[in-house]
């Protein structure tokens, strides 16, 4: 393979280096394009633009491959915990026993929020969207941890990461309690990460929620599977904000805002909303499948298909097994779950879906599992944010550690009016 690409424009020609990643991915390095030619590239939505070199996550959508730091997602889902996976993503290697113990202790110690946070929460109206509260409160952490705004060494980064990963879970649970008018439940230091979250979500004063180990395992898996997905919209947002040397709290808060949109983390909510519409509209699963196939109908089956994974979504494959287990264990009777399972069965053998490689994606099964566990639909994207936090931190750190990185500052092709004069009010028509 040639080591350069030749760009010809007008009667000029320049050579551009070709960069190769560790899995053989190739890219044309245009870092010096503007300096050498005065030209820029135009790539709306960055579909063809590599914005960084990264050693964190590898995806091959055609082959259904997702690896964190080289380790297949299937192995992590089977053997790891969310906290161990978080360490792997952020620091690059699986933790040694003492590293994991230290990190877990820092998470436990930092699970509480400053008491003044309660006043902040109480300032939100009941029914405030939990994602709005989450984003605001992660930004607010910066006010309570001013000693962590400048990451001077690895120890400060580790402490900041532990605080954010621990506190995002408490903030998430408090957001739910506030949006439901329920009393806040303090974290319990005896409980592990996911169990503690379930406790803060569902315990009542003097009535402790009993955590089922299978539910804890399923939720742990959902968090692992969401922990990173390379340069997606929210992670790119975190990098852009961090590139101005904004602190980790501000950058993570921006990540939550980016994740909120229905085209990103909000898709898991869309799956459940669609199931509700189907249920209330009285459509049968067969009619829904026919509607999704009808080219004159814009309707799409939410939770099916993926932009990157064209054969299967490896995360969905893992979660399907987990969903089957959780539903069987809980024996929940929910018409929405019945509709979902029937849609899955019909779509998997329908030639329209099979030919277009439209399989259920991660949002389909994560929504089903969370619904069965009793997590409210408006908390689904919040769960995604808890899961994605290690990925955001890992990307922020990778950029921070790269001493060659510069502030992100894309260019544009200007299409507005040419030079014209200011008109006084009485001359405008
Ligand atoms: N229901 C019905 N038909 C579909 C669906 C669907 N969910 N998804 C794609 N198709 C059809 C398209 O109509 C098109 O058919 P055609 O070739 O006859 O024109 C074909 O499949 C290819 O579709 P594209 O839109 O080109 O696929 P693309 O890769 O651009 O879109 C996307 C992927 C956006 C995820 C799409 O499948 C979709 O809208 N799915 C539903 C929404 C959803 O579940 N989003 C969550 C994604 S997972 C995540 O973000 C974590």
Description:
This protein is mainly alpha-helical. Helix content is 52%, strand content 7%. The chain has helices at residues 33-37, 73-79, 82-91, 97-109, 116-122, 130-144, 154-179, 193-202, 213-226, 233-243, 248-260, 267-281, 285-293, 314-330, 335-348, 351-355, 362-373, 380-401; strands at 4-9, 12-20, 26-28, 57-60, 65-68, 71-72. The strands form two sheets. The chain has a three-stranded antiparallel β-sheet. The protein has a three-stranded antiparallel β-sheet with strand order 4-5-6. Helix 7 runs antiparallel to helix 18 and helix 9 runs antiparallel to helix 17. The longest helix is centred in the middle third of the chain and has 26 residues, at 154-179. The N and C termini lie far apart (61 Å). The mean pLDDT is 95. Acetyl coenzyme *A binds at residues 267, 292, 300-307, 356, 358, 361-363.
Please outline what is shown here:
The chain is mainly alpha-helical. Helix content is 52%, strand content 7%.
Q: Which value, in Å, is the CA radius of gyration?
A: 24 Å
Distance between the termini: 61 Å
Q: What sort of overall outline do the alpha carbons produce when their principal axes are compared?
A: globular
Helices and strands, in N-to-C order? EEEHEEEHHHHHHHHHHHHHHHHH
- Tell me the number of strands: 6
Biggest sheet, spatial arrangement of strands: 1-2-3
Low-confidence stretches: none
Mean pLDDT: 95
Largest sheet: 3 strands, antiparallel
By secondary-structure content and strand pairing, the structural class works out as: mainly alpha
Helix content: 40-55%
Q: Spell out which ligands are present.
A: acetyl coenzyme *A
Number of helices: 18
Taken as a percent bin, the fraction of beta residues is: 5-15%
